[in-house]
Write a structure and sequence with these properties.
Order of helices and strands: HEHHEEH
Helix content: 40-55%
Strand content: 15-25%
Largest sheet: 3 strands, antiparallel
Strand order of the largest sheet: 1-3-2
Mean pLDDT: 84
CATH class: Mainly Alpha
CATH architecture: Orthogonal Bundle
Structural class: alpha+beta
Distance between the termini: 21 Å
Number of helices: 4
CATH superfamily: Winged helix-like DNA-binding domain superfamily/Winged helix DNA-binding domain
Oligomer: single chain
Amino acid sequence: MPRRQTSKVIERKKQILELLLKEGELPTNEIVRRTGLSHSQVFYALKLLQRDGLVKEIKRGKVAYWRAAENVTPELIQKMSANEGAEEGSQEQEGEE
């Protein structure tokens, strides 16, 4: 059974999605720089977003670029944080802080 996501992880996903929606396509290191999060925090959130079909990974040589999927809108981002936050309750820690 997959673990539920903490409010911190949900906020990171939302922050990254908003950035990608605004900027278009960015490499992982640029997302790290612009969000102020660690590389592992960004990568973890990106992999969750990719699993949910909300971001696409584009490999160019050794560099991974990320962009929001076509179905991502600002409204979807707002709903995502509201819906996932409502399920939070008594969750386990994700291991990423």
